Amino acid sequence: MARTKQQQREETMEALTATARRLFAEHGYGKVGLETIAQTAGVSKGALYHHFSSKAELFRHVLGVVQHDVGEQIARAADAAPDSWAGLLAGCRAFLAAATDPETQQIMLLDGPSVVGWQDWRELDAESSARHLAEALTGLMTEGALAKRPVEPLVRLLSGAMNEAAVWLAHSPDPKADLAATMDTLTPMIEALR
After folding, report:
1. Which of 1, 67, 160, 194 would suit a FRET pair with 97, their CA atoms being 20 to 30 Å apart?
2. pTM
């Protein structure tokens, strides 16, 4: 059965995204060229340029996918918790655990801010992880489990602390042990908000 042009475009986009994600994670943004991405994905450079005008644009797309995936991990962890409070802590742990994954480290934490710029990186974070944090905090305030206060500054403070911890974990020689220590420190900080 013949594939439609739309199916071909989608397949090319998926191949480029998956290939670029793997290569950026393995080698870092600076060491991967567009020609390598196109060849590895099995598409022409023209097909790559049909979808992305530059390596930076392709990286931004990949970064958005990675951040979305991290956001989904957070949501799954929070939804699996027995209650909203445990869900908040599970979501925080899932975010910090993502920082111990080499792919996430390289794309989201090491290359991301420098390639797309801090402001764009923060906007992508706001669409994924920070959005889940805001929803969790708002829900806890509505339930009465958390004292009512302005949500936006609270999200910024907690998100900033966790982003800094995530970057630290990405550079840690022992991220698994440091993740446990980070959660041991973060949990009482969040508990103090009750």
Report:
1. 194
2. 0.88
